[in-house]
Design brief:
Isoleucyl-tRNA Synthetase, Domain 1, 17 helices, about 500 residues, 4-stranded antiparallel β-sheet, alpha/beta
Length: about 500
């Protein structure tokens, strides 16, 4: 079995500082990266910034800055955000790096050599904000301003010489590819959108621009810059040192296992990207998952709407793990979701403080008082003990399936159920009434400690730093976390000294 796993976030436009939507893409990707790592995969997790094109050139001009200096500044805020979000990425790519230009030029040359690219003229609508070409039926007139129907962003008329990619030739081959790889696009609803768009007919795609110069030049014609999406998508290859196909990174990690993206950029990833790759004889990625948006009120966040939620402010107030937990649990993955202070506070109080935090505190405090903070000696497990401990081995295959199918909510729902069950177990067993039957009392403590261990391993990809605090008490180091051990009911060794636990999550006073 191939134990390598390559996962990517979209690369972000450094046209303005990061917001909650960007944080969401990254946190979800980090969740999968960590989950796969503890399942024994050698994971390569990539994120970065998308720095070329007219959108960035204009943003830099507005600030009267050289575009590269402008990008240096904002790209750094994205890199800093990766640290703040505790992302476990292996690389951070910038499309202004030389390694990236080499890849893009190479891909272009292959496509040109294969006759997939030809020179002509583009006349049509273009949205600088989306960096996308739109046909007449994809735009509408709103009070005299032409806008894209799907994204709502302004479009402008463009007429210029342009190279075209023969996308129309790839229509049938793409349909065939989707048929043969039914899980290439998830969730299913997005797949249906893509397939029907492709079936409605693909036109050749303009892949170069001539009226500005901030980008990678077409190797054979320096008057043109390569279309920013062809440039940007190639980042997934350049980070693996493509075109050096004998490079270890490329050999180990291409094709990518999962491009995690927002639904607004599905067309680029699920149509253009596999078409470019198939045309260049490169394997397409295995999966593209289009998640929903984090809405601010009922709207997508954007600078122009002035409704940006700043992840840093929320992290400052509530901490990072609560935000990660909220976004992973409360947003139905694949659909839109929103974040409100009220819902976030309830989630911290009920799930993190009352359910998980309380379980850890009370069991460890009881163990401290009655078993000298050591893993105690045990009698045989009762049916009640086995029933709750075996939940993890019984659901193990499902949990793996949820991880592989990106069923985030099923995964976390299992955790929440187990947290309730563990608290209930400890209450029902009443170890405090078993002081005359020390062996039974110790067995209850042991079972509760095992449950904490198991559930904390499952929580690690969601709330890594809080989970590590708990695992540290059990002497489990980060690089030794092994998902498979959730099946083991006798992992903790008798006599192991448990250290003290600080408060994990503080309850928040909420106004009624
Ligand atoms: N640069 C392109 C991606 C190129 S990938 C080869 C881009 N950048 S972006 O900065 O505009 O958006 C990056 C990601 O953030 C996209 O997946 C987008 O869906 C996501 N989000 C931006 N706003 C969002 C929300 N409000 N909610 C959730 N994610 C959204 O597109």
């Amino acid at each position: 079995m191939n134990k390598n796993y390559y996962i990517t976030t979209p690369i972000y436009y450094p046209s303005a500082k990061p917001h909650m939507g960007h944080a969401y893409s990254s946190i979800i990707a980090d969740f999968f990266a960590r989950l796969k790592r503890i399942q024994g995969f050698n994971v390569y997790f990539l994120t970065g910034t998308d720095e070329h094109g007219q959108k960035i050139q204009r943003a830099a001009e507005k600030k009267k800055m050289d575009p590269l200096i402008f990008c240096d500044e904002i790209s750094k805020t994205f890199r800093d955000l990766s640290d703040t979000l505790n992302l476990s990425n292996n690389d951070f790519i910038r499309t202004t790096e030389t390694r990236h230009a080499i890849s893009v030029e190479n891909l272009w040359n292959i496509l040109e050599k294969k006759g997939e690219i030809y020179l002509s003229k583009y006349s049509g609508w273009y949205s600088v904000s989306d960096e996308a070409f739109y046909s007449e039926n994809e735009i509408e007139d709103l009070n005299g301003t032409k806008k894209s129907i799907t994204s709502g962003s302004k479009v402008e008329w463009v007429e210029e010489e342009s190279y075209f990619f023969r996308l129309s030739n790839w229509q049938d081959k793409l349909i065939d590819f989707y048929d043969k790889n039914p899980d290439f696009i998830l969730p299913e609803t997005r797949k249906n959108e893509v397939v029907s768009f492709v079936k409605s007919g693909l036109k050749d795609l303009s892949v170069s621009r001539k009226s500005f110069n901030w980008g990678i030049k077409v190797p054979s014609n320096k008057d043109h810059v390569i279309y920013v999406w062809l440039d940007a998508l190639t980042n997934y290859l350049s980070a693996l040192n493509y075109p050096n196909k004998s490079d270890n990174l490329y050999k180990s990690f291409w094709p990518a296992d999962l491009h995690l993206i927002g639904k607004d950029i599905l067309r680029f990833h699920a149509i253009y990207w596999p078409a470019f790759l198939l045309a260049a004889d490169i394997d397409p990625p295995k999966r593209v998952f289009g998640h929903g948006w984090i809405l601010s009120g009922d709207e997508k966040m954007s600078k122009s709407k002035g409704n940006i939620l700043d992840p840093l402010e929320i992290i400052d107030t509530y901490g990072l793990d609560p935000l990660r937990y909220y976004l992973i649990k409360e947003v139905s993955f694949g659909n839109d979701g929103n974040i409100s202070q009220d819902k976030l506070e309830s989630c911290i109080n009920s799930d993190l403080a009352n359910n998980y935090g309380n379980l850890c505190q009370r069991v460890l405090a009881f163990c401290d008082k009655n078993a000298n903070s050591e893993v105690p000696d045990i009698a045989t497990f009762t049916d009640d003990d086995k029933l709750i401990l075996d939940q993890y081995s019984n659901h193990y295959d499902n949990l793996i399936k949820y991880s592989d199918n990106q069923d985030v909510n099923l995964y976390i729902n299992f955790i929440v159920e187990q947290l309730f069950a563990a608290n209930k177990y400890f209450n029902d067993q009443e170890p405090w009434k078993k002081k005359n039957d020390k062996l039974r009392m110790n067995t209850i403590i042991y079972v509760a400690l095992e449950l904490i261990r198991k559930v904390t391993i499952l929580l690690y990809p969601i709330i890594p730093s809080s989970s590590l605090k708990v695992l540290k008490i059990l002497h489990i180091k980060e690089d030794k976390i092994d998902f498979e051990t959730i099946k083991d009911n006798n992992y903790l060794k008798k006599g192991l000294k448990l250290s003290k636990l600080d408060i994990l999550f503080k309850k928040i006073e909420q106004n009624d």
